[in-house]
């Protein structure tokens, strides 16, 4: 039996830099989510501002999705090999360069390219979680990882109203100058406050695997994201799905026969890792429907009989309580995981998401009930998203944590893209004319909530099937202050 590699003992960096490591990494995660959200208020006006078509403008979102999906596992692997702080800094730098390009140009081709660069920031959270695993003692790791996971929702909740306010009162380029300045602060802070992790997995970078994964994911996600616009039974979409199956099948074979693969598929095939990835995909689907449907529902015209006719700023403020809740509940998630194990936290979080959708189904006309339901979903998302990286950290070797968490984030991304396509399909097939314009019906929204709630329940059931995790083991580790290499290897087996 192959002996596990020695695991470096975590150490807290002394002084001010050590105390700021967690806040700086959390700032990077929030900044990443803000950067992904700020373009949303611009979408209705971008065709006029850039003298382009709505179809071309939609690529400012699609390009970020595709590049983020491709680069997250790739940069995670690069972090394990060449240094996590180095790759994290590079990802934030690419995000900032993309923001500067958006601030300087009104050309749609430049904007799409810039948004593709910003997709690199999707790797910020898995890289940061891996750094926290390497640098923090076990008793501090759980709460730090939970906070880092919550930054995705916190940043999204803050980014939407902030961007809407800037767009409403200033030139739209001002928004990107602001995010450029914040990005520069994030790059500098990470380089100054975060220590380079000593945990590495040496070897040659798998270029063929990277190209194969990129091609397969682009075909898959492009088909999912554009299916509603191009037609699900059209030749382009069916061709993309067929190409994805072929390319990813060849990629899978290549990864199994490569000495140093981009993604260790033998590790993924272990139930603790593989089922965690499945749960991540399902949770991503369930969570994302909340943001998509809530925004459209409250902005629907009052003539529909259910819409509230809110502005984009007011819509952002409706989602803000959910972001605050995610910040407040992340420590609770860590305590539940320490006492009962992260799979229980994940199952509980997915069940809470389902309860939130039950509230939405019960009443989606009164604003306070809409906010309550959205906040309950956000609470469940906090519990679930905080538990997922902890499950991965306990199930994989220390030198593969960044790449493994990158794959987990990729599965969430695929779930979110699928959720977006499913919600769009449901709403398109349930419309009624209002002022001569087809508008989704309330029944369509309730059906979308039902689908998302059912997926959340499936995610909860999947979490309970993840083997080998107990609250007793988590408590023992939290109290010991050390990680034993033999236990880590046995957990992964």
Keywords:
disordered C terminus; 493 residues; two-stranded antiparallel sheet; 20 helices; mainly alpha
Give your account of this protein's structure.
The protein has 493 residues and is mostly helical. Helix content is 77%, strand content 2%. It is built from 20 helices and 2 strands. It has a two-stranded antiparallel sheet. Strand 1 (431-434) and strand 2 (437-440) form a beta hairpin. Helix 5 (84-104) runs antiparallel to helix 9 (172-193).
Tell me the layout of helices and strands.
Elements (H helix, E strand, L loop, with lengths): L14 H23 L8 H5 L3 H4 L1 H24 L1 H21 L3 H11 L5 H12 L2 H32 L2 H22 L13 H24 L4 H22 L8 H4 L2 H29 L12 H29 L1 H21 L4 H29 L5 H28 L2 E4 L2 E4 L1 H23 L6 H10 L4 H8 L1
Antiparallel strand pairs: 1-2
Helix pairs in contact: 1-7, 1-8, 1-9, 4-5, 4-6, 4-10, 4-17, 5-6, 5-7, 5-9, 7-8, 7-17, 8-14, 8-16, 10-11, 10-17, 13-14, 13-15, 13-16, 13-17, 13-18, 14-15, 14-16, 14-19, 15-16, 15-18, 16-17, 17-18
């Amino acid at each position: 039996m192959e002996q596990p590699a020695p695991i470096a003992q975590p150490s807290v960096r002394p002084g001010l830099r050590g105390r700021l490591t967690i806040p700086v990494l959390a700032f990077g995660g929030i900044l990443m989510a803000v950067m992904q959200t700020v373009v949303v208020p611009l979408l209705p006006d971008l065709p006029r501002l850039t003298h382009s078509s709505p179809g071309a403008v939609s690529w400012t979102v699609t390009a970020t999705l595709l590049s983020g999906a491709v680069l997250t596992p790739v940069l995670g692997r690069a972090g394990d090999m060449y240094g996590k702080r180095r790759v994290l800094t590079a990802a934030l730098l690419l995000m900032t360069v993309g923001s500067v390009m958006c601030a300087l140009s009104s050309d749609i081709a430049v904007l799409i390219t810039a948004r593709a660069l910003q997709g690199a920031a999707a790797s910020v959270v898995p890289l940061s979680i891996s750094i926290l695993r390497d640098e923090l003692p076990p008793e501090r790791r759980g709460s730090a990882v939970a906070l880092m996971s919550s930054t995705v929702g916190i940043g999204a909740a803050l980014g939407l109203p902030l961007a809407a306010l800037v767009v409403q009162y200033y030139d739209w380029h001002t928004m990107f100058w602001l995010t450029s300045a914040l990005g520069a602060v994030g790059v500098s802070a990470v380089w100054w406050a975060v220590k380079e992790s000593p945990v590495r997995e040496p070897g040659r970078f798998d270029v063929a695997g990277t190209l194969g994964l990129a091609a397969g994911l682009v075909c898959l996600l492009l088909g999912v994201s554009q299916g509603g616009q191009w037609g699900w039974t059209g030749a382009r979409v069916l061709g993309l799905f067929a190409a994805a199956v072929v390319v990813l099948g060849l990629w899978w074979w290549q990864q199994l026969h490569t000495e140093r693969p981009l993604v260790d598929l033998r590790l993924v095939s272990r139930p603790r890792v593989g089922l965690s990835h499945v749960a991540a995909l399902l949770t991503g689907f369930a969570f994302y429907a909340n943001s998509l449907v809530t925004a459209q529902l409250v902005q629907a015209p009052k003539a529909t009989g259910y819409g509230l006719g809110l502005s984009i700023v007011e819509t952002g403020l409706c989602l803000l309580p959910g972001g605050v809740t995610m910040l407040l509940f992340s420590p609770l998630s860590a305590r539940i995981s320490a006492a009962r194990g992260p799979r229980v936290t994940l199952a509980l979080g997915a069940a809470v998401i389902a309860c939130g959708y039950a509230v939405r189904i019960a009443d989606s006309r009164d604003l306070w009930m809409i906010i309550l339901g959205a906040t309950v979903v956000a609470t469940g998302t906090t519990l679930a998203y905080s538990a997922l990286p902890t499950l991965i950290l306990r199930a994989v070797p220390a030198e593969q944590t960044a790449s493994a968490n990158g794959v987990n984030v990729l599965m969430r991304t695929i779930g979110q893209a699928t959720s977006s396509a499913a919600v769009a399909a449901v709403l398109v097939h349930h419309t009624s004319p209002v002022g001569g314009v087809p508008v989704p019906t309330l029944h369509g929204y309730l059906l979308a909530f039902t689908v998302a709630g059912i997926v959340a329940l499936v995610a909860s059931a999947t979490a309970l099937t993840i083997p080998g995790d107990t609250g007793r083991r988590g408590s023992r580790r939290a109290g010991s202050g050390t990680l034993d290499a033999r236990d880590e290897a046995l957990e992964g087996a």
